[in-house]
């Protein structure tokens, strides 16, 4: 049985027990986590499923995640949806009902790149708790319509490195694909900054669709997943954005607990599961 198949078992299965125990033992032996007394099974399983139940790779991911949180407090310690409600209300960001993520507008004079990245991190923390997303991963669509020099100037090498770390080796999510649409010439220098920090595996999963995305997104997403604005048959983008904004606001306390916890490992209840297990691809 391979790692992906093991990941299909429920959290409390006997088959997963030895891997959870092994990862916990290795993590608590790490010098940089010497102050940590234990990790919960739920928390460790996020990292195990993100690396197909490979304990060594999961340990590396867990250590990178802890290191990233310590080195990026300006992002990781402020996960309050209400603090960026104005940004969320611009239909900037959503999680689609079929588990694929898409983004829309960001006005750089109103919102900094750090605030935009913080919204993405809030969403990533929430969806990484959902078991099926742990198993299947995510695909993201970034609509760069209206991107200008003002956007490009906000992405410096330091932020580019932080973004690439989350995409590649510092967050417990499988990134299955990154799809860019309406990308303008101003985006090219930004991508050139981020690209060197990305492993080949992630580079190969980045797809630039340009303005003719209606013809090419369907090669990667079924029509039922995409909003009509992107050539699909799902809910409209404004409705999807408002629904996800409401979900984030309902998660305010949960996200603040994650942000303030030394390791991000907090106790979850069934009510904390915000994404339906019954969604499609």
TrEMBL record:
Source organism of this protein record: Etheostoma spectabile (orangethroat darter)
Protein name: CRAL-TRIO domain-containing protein
Any one of the GO BP annotations: vitamin E metabolic process
Entry-linked PANTHER family: ALPHA-TOCOPHEROL TRANSFER PROTEIN (PTHR10174:SF225), ALPHA-TOCOPHEROL TRANSFER PROTEIN-RELATED (PTHR10174)
InterPro entries membership: CRAL-TRIO_dom (IPR001251), CRAL-TRIO_dom_sf (IPR036865), CRAL/TRIO_N_dom (IPR011074), CRAL/TRIO_N_dom_sf (IPR036273)
One Gene Ontology term of the molecular function aspect: phosphatidylinositol bisphosphate binding
SMART domains listed in its UniProt record: CRAL_TRIO_N, SEC14
GO cellular component terms attached to this protein's record: late endosome; membrane
High-level lineage: Eukaryota, Metazoa, Chordata, Craniata, Vertebrata
Domain spans labelled CRAL-TRIO: 72-238
